[in-house]
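User: Hi! I'm working on a homework problem where we have to compare a predicted structure to a textbook description. Could you give me the structure for the chain below?
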Amino acid sequence: MTQAADNERIALRLADIQGNILNAYGKQGFPKGRAIFLHVDNGKKGREFLEEFYDRVTTAVRWKSDNPYAPKAETSASERPPVTLNFAFTFNGLVALGVPIKTLSMMPAEFLQGMRARAPILGDTLPDGALDRWDEVWKHEAQAGSDKAVHIMALLNSNMDPATGEPVPEMEELTNLIRNHCNDGGVRILTGHGVGEADYQDMSARLIQDAETGQFKPVPLEHFGFVDGISDPVFEGQFLPANEEERKVGNGKFTGELKTQEEVENPDNWAPLATGEFLLGYPDEAKEMPPAALPNLFSTNGTFMAYRKLEENVESFHEYIDNTVPEFAKVYGIADQDEARATLFAKFSGRWQDGVPLALAPTYADWITFNEQHQDDVTRRPLLSRFIYGDDKDGAACPASSHTRRVHPRDMLGPGDASGTILVNRRRILRRGLPYDATKDGKRERGIVMLICCSSLERQFEFVQQQWINYGMDSNAGNDTCPMLGVRQDDKLKFVIPNDPEGEGAPYICSNLPQFVETKGGAYFFVPSMTSLRMIAIGMIDPT
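Assistant: Happy to help. Predicted structure tokens:
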């Protein structure tokens, strides 16, 4: 790490950072993923396993890419590999691998306790019996000393064969290398992933097939039908300067006056977020060093990750929308049912299904016009993050309780224009992951695997999950939860859609909301730097 003065840039040692922290692989030509979960029976064998695969671990060094929106690469960048590999560890996994207790005792409390133990905080105990429905692989995380607890997560991402839509052969080759090493004993692959039979959690971008060529192409859609992964926080050192100047607008932090759209689009009003919000060993937005374990080499350039498998009840969601559209159309005065359905979808999400924010296109007609004016995806994509809510305080355009507005309130949590942004800047998270889709014996399970990276699981991920998704006070919604991801204690929870921005009259109230998304498992992981990973592998960590 190069520590910089206030007026200097932080330069990251990309070769020391695991690549899946800085890079969303799914957006960079790796639409296929696998998460393999391992239990360490013998610490020495576990360390040998890590040494065996250390040289295959993918770092954050930027590759050359044909994707025009991909981060610019260094001139000396290597070619992109066909498959990536990254490792992360639970607290119990670090214990099993022999990391000194003095080092482990300095880890944050939420990481020590684990996700399952903190399920009440996250809302994962709802609806009744929810924990009993977690995948088998995750049912033992709160049991001290369990021989079925997850210790290591090996994450693989790969390109695919467009002719078949399947991963490239190198994905299976690397999977088999891990399997073969586990056959020697000391490290076991844990099974039990929903309705599937594989010894890994499969992940895949949704695919479309060209009717003429038969070729498959990945599309950035989750199973409800919304474009996903549109924006991510931009922090210092994440991109080369030229890239950062463009990407920070809308995705960094507010630094100027933001009362008009022209001011929003002015790069001088934006700055990248502090590196320490996402990587350990750097100052955060409070100009403090995030709590981390000693020695510094063990923590620096690492981060924490929340792995969450979220099942989407697609049929229930579309059935609710279909049943609600006729009445909603009457209240809003929309004659065309397709327009009403698209509008209702957008009100739930805060964005139209293709990602255009309601803040920029409040009505169906505005949405059509926006897309007509911005057809080039390279120039259109950055626009999808360049907005604020200051001119929509009552939520007439974008409901204050909609999903997008809840998870990133932007300028709406303070008493004046942009005055709530300091709080929001401390709650940002990096979102990684891919959808999944499995069928067995006629039972189909669909959802998304979320990989959430941040320096403080409690202050960032858990706060967003508990306060903004599952409570409604900051959204002026009382006890009502997020209409898409929120848990439901009973059928009395609702979602209020204020008046149409071009109309008059009472709001429309969506009542008796089912729970559309349910957690099926997960855990908290430490993602070490390459230096730290080597220290773990050779068993050489001195906390003094």
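For your comparison, note the following. The mean pLDDT is 92. The CA atoms of residues 43 and 97 lie 5 Å apart. Good luck with the assignment!
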